[in-house]
Sequence to fold (138 residues):
Amino acid sequence: MAGDVDLNLSLALAGYEGRLWDYFANELAKYGCAVIASRIRRKIIFERCRTKGFGGLPTSNRPFTEDEVAELTYETVTKALFHFRHDVLMKSKWDHRREPLSVRTSSGSASSGSRTSTAAGGLERTAIAPYSLKTTTC
Fold:
């Protein structure tokens, strides 16, 4: 939790932009793509949307093509990242006691690369580039 507070403070001091934000947003995008694509492929996302009152598409009797999975995934994750940054983080609505910022799972980092070293806020050091969901593999 302390790492999440430090990470959020560092991101806030930089105005939720710049190299740290780009790296963090890219990690969130990779994690989000993996989760959302899996839920779309298994068709459980539609039931979860209905359960939470978000409506949703009717389920289909055929499996989605990989292009359909990618398109739905990119659109969902792009909108979620925008909302998270503008409507949650930038408006100081995030509460570290309830919702960790960490994208780590029980198996380690959500990123597919090997861990080299840990930077401030618990992020691993890698080449930092602006995030683009078109370059993130689902």
In short: Residues 66-89 form the longest helix (24 residues).
